Amino acid sequence: MKPLAGLCTMGCRLNHAEAARIAGALGEAGWRVESCSAPPAGAAAWLLHSCAVTAEAEKEALRRVRAAARAGVPLVAVCGCAASVVPEETWREAGATLVLSRRAPALPPPPPGASPERVFAHAADSAQRGASAAPAAFASVRAPVKIQDGCSFRCAYCIVPDARGAPASRSAQDVMREVRALAARGYREIVLTGVNAACWRDGARRLPDLVGEIAAIPDVARVRLGSVEPGTCERELAALAANSVGKVCGFLHLPLQSGSDFVLRAMRRHYSRAAYRAAAASVLETLPDVGLGTDVVTGFPGETEEDFRQTVALVRELPFSNLHVFPYSERPGTPAASMPNPVPMRERRERARFLAALGREKRAAFAARFAGRDVEVLVERVEKDGTASGWTGEYLRAEIPGRDPSDIGRLLRVRVSDVGGESGDSLFCIPRTASSGS
Fold it and tell me: What are the CA-CA distances from residue 396 to residues 288, 349, 362, 367, 419 (Å)?
């Protein structure tokens, strides 16, 4: 029997895209892979694909490694961002037996007859670097595809440039080859991810060109975008979505971080409050019902009550449907970690709680717009009682009664009969007619 490896993934959508490639590479290398948070019973290896975006994420990664070591797993490995910024001796002290840092040279292919551990190490290392040709292994009909890595923006709070290096784009040919292969294997929605996906380039081709080419593949039901920096190509992407008859999802995530010009300058963001408002307005003009996501950090060093009020005012003004709120956390190794006038942690968290509640209100209000209207839902699962669930192009969760497991992977056009649920943002739908992919 093949040895069992547990794979634990922390952090962003890009990390999950990489983890799927790691799982595929380990599978080709002769391992059984189980996604998990803690080592499964009988595991011969446990691999953490780590996150380092905050100090808390780093602490959590070390905690999980210690727990895996205490569980007695023979091979405890760590890769990902934290593995590239935390010293190897720190991981060793926590109990890791294998540290795969992107800053270290790539591991050479193992010779014939190499130990399973060496085969494991090479497969995981080559996959996290994007060098493995093994097909990715995803758990649903939606497949995140990494198109870009690295960043040179150097925001004051961000460690990612140190963890992932300079910007690098995959070639359009390589991306299209992977997307076609995924579509042939039954994956219906392609989610394009990157550290700074809006900076993707291949010669004269830019992100909107790549999105258009992928949307033209007949077997791809939908293309969804991850985070796109404001002031880059959001207007063109909105136009693509508006003209794609649903193939490009009507959702854009434009990170805000703060609605205060003072805080934006301190963060070293590349836009002002007015420029962000203009970027969002350009999207809304083309796609009035767009799902608009954003990130906000509360309590950045020097943020006053007035700065926070400006952020709240801008969030109230714009029709956000997804609001991700984070209290600022000092990230050692970044300029912001030593900035003067830190905001007390209690105040950071109170501000975050206030904005999170506002975000829930705005998401419920956005969902309520669709009552009585038709939407398209990509079915991801069907419960035993026949209730199908999935996501609309606007990134709203939807439930449809009276369906069958054969509907998984189908894009269904349905009528929204009710909006509610525990958080007030679930769409309850009545089947209409099957759309593309049926």
Answer: 16, 27, 13, 7, 11
What token pair was written down for 189? 């929605």
% helix, strand, coil for the chain, step of 5: 35, 25, 40
The letter for the amino acid at 247 is: K
Domains of the chain in sequence order: 4-128 (3.40.50), 142-368 (3.80.30.20), 374-434 (2.40.50)
**Own/partner pairs, 367-372, CB within 8 angstroms, 24+ separation:** 367/321, 367/396, 367/419, 367/424, 367/425, 367/426, 367/427, 368/419, 369/289, 370/289, 370/394, 370/396, 370/416, 370/419, 370/427, 371/416, 371/418, 371/419, 372/415, 372/416, 372/417
206-261 confidence digits (pLDDT tens): 999 999 999 999 999 999 998 999 999 999 999 999 999 889 999 999 999 999 99
Query: CB neighbours (10 Å) of residue 361?
Result: 13
**280-to-158, 239, 345 alpha-carbon distances in Å:** 23, 13, 30
CB-CB contact of 378 with 221 (8 Å): yes
Question: Residue 386: how many CB atoms within 10 A of its CB?
Answer: 13
**Interatomic CA distance for residues 316 and 135, integer angstroms:** 43
- The model's pLDDT over 349-386, given as tens digits with 9 standing for 90+, comes to 999 999 999 999 999 999 999 999 999 999 999 999 99
Q: What is the model's pTM?
A: 0.91
